[in-house]
Amino acid sequence: MAFSFFTQELAIDLGTANTVIFQNDQIVLDEPSIVAIDNNTGKCIALGQKAKLMHEKTNPGIKTVRPLKDGVIADFNAAEMMIRGFIKQVNSKHRTLFSPSLKVVVGIPSGSTEVEIRAVRDSSEHAGGRDVYLIYEPMAAALGIGLDVEAPKGNMVVDIGGGTTEIAVISLGGIVQQDSIRTAGDVFTSDIQYYLRQQHNIKVGETTAEKIKIAVGAVIPELQDEPEPEPFVVRGPNLMTAHPVDATITYQEIAHCLDKSIAKLEASILHVLESTPPELYSDIVENGIFLSGGGALLRGLAQRFSEKVNIQFHVAEDPLRAVARGTCIALKNVENYSFLMR
Ligand code: ADP
Ligand code: MG
């Protein structure tokens, strides 16, 4: 197409934890959704991975911000700075003579209010998007997993991100039932911080707690494949003495400390199933329920959910990128998919 030279097309998964951008079917950016800002000038000094390294290690002159911390744009300025910065980063890789006009598809949480939707749209437009389409994240996840979202058939996805867990039943290109709860990766991380304070008298930051979650995170007390290297040794100040101490954390402990939060997800999944029309429900029983998002990587999650709900759960391939892949598929079909919002 003659115009493609001037029109740049990007599919953006603007996640609360990670932003992933696809261009021409390829991942051109995958970075934590964090910006570091100079408190005096208000300017962005680092983005993504670089900013994440500064997180919890700043001085009063610098702050790190996660613009989407609770599943929605919490800090409009920072969000715009971040989107703009990421798009610039993508462009610096292939320099063009003209500043191209930008067509983007951006994923948004299914529970977004009008105001929140507007905030994402405005941020994307201010960051240079001329043609901005929005897609609900569970719809994008379903597309990315490879489900036929337009079929007269019930499909169910559970996307467990950083700020929110999105649960949705999809049929005929629309979301039939959904729930969006703020129990997700960030909560699991703070569950671990709380547990370490209570049980091991040790204080750890979010960054370390997240490392523990990734290294030995589990949701059932008996895993078939135990994580290696197990157990995880964490060092921190003893709460009483401030002396450095080591604590050894096993996956069983993590399964125990995440139990309440995982139970909230189960309740919400059951609630969505309860209100699903019976014909769609029977499709779901037949096909199973698909898990995506970083939280889907918790060990034993599909097994635990399957036992609780009595329906088979499947973890998507490369769950951290399912929404981005789906957003990319949507970008190629903007003319055909009626569920895209302009
Ligand atoms: P979002 O879409 O909100 O940006 P993601 O789908 O990218 O979220 O998932 C990020 C979340 O997944 C973070 O809370 C992160 O700690 C968590 N996560 C990433 N990898 C793992 C893992 N291996 N085990 C458990 N949680 C993980
Ligand atoms: Mg996501």
Envelope shape: flat
Q: What is the SS-derived class?
A: alpha/beta
The number of E-state strands comes to 15
Associated small molecules = adenosine-5'-diphosphate, magnesium ion
Question: Could you give the order of the helices and strands?
Answer: EEEEEHEHEHEHEEEHHEEHHEHEH
DSSP strand (E) fraction?
Answer: 25-35%
Outline:
The chain is α/β, with parallel strands linked by helices and 342 residues long.
Report on this model:
Strands 3-2-1-7-8 form a 5-stranded mixed β-sheet, with helices on both faces. A 5-stranded mixed β-sheet has the order 11-10-9-14-15, sandwiched between helices. It contains 10 helices and 15 strands. The radius of gyration is 21 Å and the shape is flat. About 35% of the residues lie in helices and about 25% in strands. The model has no long low-confidence stretch (mean pLDDT about 90). It has about 350 residues and is of the alpha/beta class. β10 and β11 (about 175-180) form a beta hairpin. It binds adenosine-5'-diphosphate and magnesium ion (MG). Adenosine-5'-diphosphate binds near residues 185, 186 and 214. Magnesium ion binds near residues 137, 159, 161, 293 and 323.
